[in-house]
Amino acid sequence: MTTPSTPTIELKPSSHPLSGAEREAILANPGFGRHFTDHMVTIKWTEGRGWHDGQLVPYGPLSFDPASMVLHYAQEIFEGLKAYRQPDGSVATFRPEANARRFQASARRLAMPEVPVETFIEACDLLVQHDKDWVPEHGGEESLYLRPFMIATEVGLGVKPASEYLFIVIASPAGAYFPGGVKPVSIWVSQDRVRAVPGGMGDAKTGGNYAASLLAQAEAIGHGCEQVCYLDAVEHKWVEELGGMNLYFVYGDKIVTPTLTGSILEGVTRDSLLSVARDLGYESEEARVSIDQWRRDTESGALTEVFACGTAAVITPVGTVKTNGAEWTQGGGTSDSVAMKLRDALLDVQRGKAEDKHGWMHELG
Ligand SMILES: *Cc1c(COP(=O)(O)O)cnc(C)c1O
């Protein structure tokens, strides 16, 4: 592959942004992914020409041909990261470079062009700068969630990597994930459905993985659980992750997360927690964990807590675990649990309340 060119992004801001009063009404109770800011960034890619026609424009519907390849063969990738208000009123994003690099890895897996890291970050920065008033006030867990994504826009029904793509960044204010306080999530460990297979695209952040997870998710709900946990696709034995969050097992003062196998998505939160845990004096490691070990160690008391992690919810303690023929409940979820200490420590870095030892915050002024 040739070195990707870095396009300029032309500014064409909205002449009719939402009024301050309307925006404040939304920010009072934003929920998650329900409202979008005034602008979006779009950049085109064409074979032979590379990235071009970068624009910041008013948020609005896209118009494209019904035979656009993404609609038929799902050549699509996405990212998720957050901008937080800092104590001095400025805004910073959390580890955008990690998301930019993962976006490139996802692009390679789906035979799509890579967005240069600088372009990915610049697109996010420009959007946050123009829609800065949409970043909730400092203090709570509220943030502005950024959703960069890329779709195949070439027209045609022949199966091949497209020769035209659109990279887009949109933003959505996000309220506290648990407005009433953190609540443990119940989990259905599926013994027959799998999320990803060796050699598949489980380590790429692509909509197809989510489409594949929805039926298992519906089954989890049918079993009275909120989320599905997937096991490996070969032995149906090794714990992988939830549909959209990674998992951690807490053994006293050691936290353990499943080793990346190629079918697990490498979460930025997962990676950050390996370091945050060490900063707080815990041990952290990657290891294989089997479903039998999970149950046995919970029953013996060695496994003290389990939690899920991801950008949207940061950390969610796991409560009840159900699988075919077995059910157990994890401890933890209380304010002095390891999960909650890690959650507060990570959020404090993101909100600018604690020292940024690892250089994770990207200041936008
Ligand atoms: C995005 C995602 C995660 C969490 O990744 P973060 O970078 O921490 O938000 C975990 N699993 C899957 C399948 C995902 O798509």
UniProtKB/TrEMBL annotation:
PROSITE patterns: AA_TRANSFER_CLASS_4. It catalyses: L-leucine + 2-oxoglutarate = 4-methyl-2-oxopentanoate + L-glutamate; L-valine + 2-oxoglutarate = 3-methyl-2-oxobutanoate + L-glutamate; L-isoleucine + 2-oxoglutarate = (S)-3-methyl-2-oxopentanoate + L-glutamate. Its EC number is 2.6.1.42. Pathway: Amino-acid biosynthesis; L-isoleucine biosynthesis; L-isoleucine from 2-oxobutanoate: step 4/4; Amino-acid biosynthesis; L-leucine biosynthesis; L-leucine from 3-methyl-2-oxobutanoate: step 4/4; Amino-acid biosynthesis; L-valine biosynthesis; L-valine from pyruvate: step 4/4. Keywords: Amino-acid biosynthesis, Aminotransferase, Branched-chain amino acid biosynthesis, Pyridoxal phosphate, Transferase. Its cofactor is pyridoxal 5'-phosphate. One of its GO terms (molecular function) is branched-chain-amino-acid transaminase activity. Gene3D superfamilies: 3.30.470.10, D-amino Acid Aminotransferase, subunit A, domain 2. Belongs to the class-IV pyridoxal-phosphate-dependent aminotransferase family. This is Branched-chain-amino-acid aminotransferase. It comes from Streptomyces monticola.
